[in-house]
Design a protein that fits this description.
The protein is mainly alpha-helical and about 450 residues long. The chain contains 22 helices and 2 strands. This is TniQ family protein.
């Protein structure tokens, strides 16, 4: 039996609705909603690798056109090097981080890349000293991901300066490559997650005591708490019912002072070793404490960073009773000042001046060892103190000059190598091959390159 269909039932002349296409791969970030969420610098390196291009090419050719004009000018071909030198800002709380996030979300059609930065914490955490300029990594994590064929990446936790250990493997993060013993930059023109950007070797298979710092059991316990506390905050920020506001820090500080010392600011400051004026600025909201100071307070109070920044939770908790007790004892018991031992101090100063210890101690370090105020020592022995300070200053200047000379020599070798290969030794090409590209901003190092460019072009 044949059934005739009307042509309109078989064919439709309406144009189908196609979903919008992204210019770059819709690459999902790793660890969304966990303490081990990926950093934006790691995402850029992985996105470049997924397109079989270098991060420098991805940024200059694809991302730059979508940036705001103020940043696009800075990211010209001559100044791309400057971006890599301050790549930590891409994971941060400022405008450049959000500019890159918005550009990448436009290119990939993703809507979750803002969580790869700490921009959601911009109101409660000041940017100063927040991120490290070089890589830090857990070799056990790298090796585990590689062996289980998981994505190798760099968590946001690892780029935060305060984080010293991996909370999963409870071991210190590595800062130096175990192969070349150098510090790989956070993001380079040819960066690849899990590999050293200087020597190109895998960072997960070797655990070297030189590459990783060592911590005492007590310090390790504290650093694990720090990592867990920051990880909890990173996990929670995108699911909080209300955003973190600057006033939360002041409210949290007021709640802590009220609960721990019954509103006595001076007692609270004395207990935690914080200047009273500084604490007053924090609790009135006139200034924000840096992340490490905030964590130190939370650790002493035995509350998490997230609870501190959500004061309604902290009020419901009971802080350490020993905190109030020790404060009361400190007010009831006056401690007599330590008597100044003139002979001992003079002997120690002379020994410091004659010592071959390198680097030489500064007067601040000498005063800390002697457990006296630096000003008090200077009042008694001004000449010896000036001599110790001058010795330390001479050493630092000589070390800086040696570092600059080494960079000049490296620039010479790189420029000559490029010249032999019939490649013009431009500032951009030379900086890409330098161990520490930022040294090219030094006046003497740049002058060395300019002289070589003139000589080689004759």
């Amino acid at each position: 039996m044949i059934v005739d269909h009307h042509p309109e039932e078989l064919w439709s002349i309406e144009k189908p609705q196609l979903p919008k296409r992204s210019r770059l791969y819709h690459l999902p970030p790793v660890g969304i909603g966990t303490p081990f969420i990926e950093s934006l610098t790691s995402y850029i390196a992985r996105l470049a690798e997924s397109h079989s291009v270098l991060p420098s090419v991805l940024i200059s050719k694809e991302i730059t056109p979508y940036l705001k004009k103020v940043f696009a000018k800075r990211l010209s071909s001559r100044r791309l090097r400057a971006l890599f030198d301050r790549a930590r800002a891409l994971n941060g709380t400022g405008d450049i981080a959000m500019d890159f996030v918005q550009a990448l979300e436009t290119l990939t059609l993703r809507s979750d890349l803002c969580f790869l930065t700490l921009h959601s914490c911009a109101s409660v955490i000041p940017p100063r000293g927040l991120f490290r300029p070089y890589k830090a990594w857990c070799p056990a994590c790298y090796q585990k991901w590689r062996l289980s064929r998981q994505v190798v990446y760099e968590p946001l936790l690892w780029v935060i300066e305060t984080i010293k250990v991996c909370p999963q493997h409870q071991q210190p993060l590595c800062l130096y490559c175990p192969h070349c013993h150098k510090q790989p930059p956070l993001l380079e023109w040819h960066s690849r997650s899990g590999y050293c950007s200087i020597c190109g070797k895998w960072l997960g298979s070797v655990f070297d005591s030189f590459a990783c710092s060592t911590l005492s059991p007590e310090d390790l316990k504290k650093e694990i708490w720090v990592a867990d506390s920051i990880g909890e905050l990173i996990t929670a920020v995108h699911s909080l019912s209300s955003p973190l506001l600057r006033e939360n820090v002041a409210k949290g500080m007021c709640a802590a002072i009220n609960l721990a010392t019954k509103g006595n600011i001076a007692a609270f400051a004395s207990l935690l070793g914080i200047p009273k004026n500084t604490l007053w600025m924090w609790h009135t909201g006139k200034a924000l404490p840096q992340l490490n100071a905030l964590l130190r307070i939370c650790y002493r109070l035995e509350i998490s960073l997230l609870d501190f920044l959500t004061p309604e939770k902290m009020v419901a908790k009971s802080l350490k009773l020993s905190l109030q007790e020790s404060t009361q004892r400190s007010h009831n018991k006056r401690v007599s000042p330590k008597p100044f031992d003139s002979d001992r101090v003079e002997e120690a100063l002379q020994a410091t001046l004659a010592s071959d210890e390198k680097p030489p101690l500064t007067m601040k370090e000498v005063a800390e060892r002697l457990e006296y105020n630096r000003r008090t020592i200077s009042q008694h022995f001004p000449d010896l103190c000036r001599a110790i300070s001058a010795k330390s200053l001479r050493y630092r200047k000589a070390a800086q000059e040696k570092k600059i000379e080494q960079s000049c020599e490296q620039v010479r070798q790189i420029a000559l190598k490029l010249h032999i290969e019939n490649v013009y030794p431009s500032e951009g090409r030379v900086s890409q091959l330098m161990t520490k590209p930022g040294d090219l901003r030094t006046k003497k190092v740049r002058a060395t390159l300019q002289e070589l460019q003139s000589e080689l072009s004759r």
